[in-house]
Amino acid sequence: MSDGTTDPIARALSLSCWTAPQGASLLEGGITNHNVRVRDMDRDYVVRLGADIPEHMILRWNELAISTAAHKAGLSPEVTYSEPGALVLRYVEAKALAASDLHDPETLAATVGLIRRLHDRGMAELTGPVLSFWVFHILRTYAAFLRDRGSAHIGRLEDLLTQAAALEARVGRVKLVLGHNDLLPANILQGEDRFWLIDWEYGGLNSPLFDLGGVATNAGLEQDAEEEMLRLYYGTPPDRDLWRSYNEMKCASLLRETMWSMVSELTSALDFDYAAYTRDNLERYQASYAAFMNGSH
Question: Where are the alpha helices (DSSP H) in 202-273?
């Protein structure tokens, strides 16, 4: 496994799946794992290195199952090998999106198409046990962990959980789909003639509105773009009930990212400024929650 101390390139090259590996290099990105590009027998691969992270409910057997289903659904590169702590996928020539890319209408439409394909076809390609991803359960679990570990954020938790409970009570009826649940722009790749979804650590059964809200918050979409995203996904402009439920899940998505970072401040060995990430996401969550409760969304 990759624990922050083992050399990830050496670990990637040590896998038994290679014939004549060469040219290994560490890829950018990844704040819960390391990614290494390896060339073997004139083909390129990406090795994802990471152990289970129970505090974030990341279990690598679940990531493997959903990565496999996502490939069968035509969304993600093929998994060619796995062992505890390592997942090997075909490398695809593509660039990771930035938040600004999703402000382009064509790119946003392509992304919505990917999400709809995942939600429509993912369950059909899925076999065996997988996790659920109910954001409000996750928030309660994070809060318990933060209290047990004496987090500097303990003083905020009561208010945040009260707000989360209010959101959960109002979400309404949920359609269950296979969700990605971590739709950062960097997890959407644009190739020469297609788009891909990658990184299925948080994949699991969820409401489609969580993925849509995640795209909007992570890309900083304006309201007109959000309305267009919902129109593209559902085939009709959002009515008042859908718009309310969407905004509730969007707020929950931002709160989950905030509390994820609070937990990571205490546990992660990776070189990343989690404290700054917490501050940024908390500010965004508070602004979104206040706007929603004041009826401006």
Answer: 208-219, 223-234, 240-267
